[in-house]
Predict the structure.
Amino acid sequence: DSGIATPVTLKVDKYGFYLHWVDQNNEMDMLDIAIIRDTRTGKYAKIPKDSKLQSFVTMGSQDSLEDKTVTICYGSDFVNVNFINFCTTRAEIAQHWTEQLFQLAYNLIQLNTSTTMFLLKAHTKLTLTVDKLEKIPVKNIIKMFTQNKEDRKRVEKALDISGFPSGKSDVVPLSKFQFEDFFNFYKSLTQRSDVEKVFEGIVGSSKRRLMSVSQFVDFLNKTQRDPRLNEILYPYANEARAKDIINQYEPNKCNANKGQLSFDGFLRYLMSEDNPIVAISKFELSDDMDQSLAHYFINSSHNTYLTGIYEYFYNYF
């Protein structure tokens, strides 16, 4: 509709977080797959109305332009929706992208994942913004975490504590900003005093910085476990289970070998997929939503469908 068509290379990052594309000038743009509402091809795709533009974007096989077009509907909600269109060389390519992007956009486990995965998503977005020299502009990091001047000061301080430059025109080499580096920056930024308070309550002293296996087992059973759960289907944690978690999340291998959990390891566990708010199995339970709208009852207030004179009298009284 804008009358502009640009040749691009379209990709999805390896985690399935972002759809991103690069043009011939090496300029990159991206779209968060989580805000994709629908993907369309064939007769439901949006093709250019202008004949010259149609001719420009038509390429490849003899398939119709509709069949070779992928229309992506995206937005923060289902009302304020925007569209972006990609034209491919073959219909099967368009069909493949349409199906796969839709599956990623409505992957409930991906949309309701752990805190660590959301941090990985933020890190992935930053790594996609690297310049030609494989460096991340510091201004992109600051922009991601700030809304006002006070936020900016906190982010700059966290960057300094983490050993990164904090100037607006500075850059960070991608090789020195891997996820572990980003996670350390996150800890400096948030300070997680809430988690530290819980940790100290378990170990019994602010001076003692390591949690034993028995203390961790008590935490898993008495604090984290829902007492309403069936003991047979959801057995209590034992020392073997506690050691498995410690081995997985304790960054210091010497501590892990001794069966000890540091604050850093405890934080990583709480933010992991092993400590979800909602059990992953619950997301696999879904109703059949492939039928026509008339096949379903709509649970709604009677005020929802008042119109005209009825609405006037309702509001009046």
In short: The chain is about 40% helix and 15% strand.
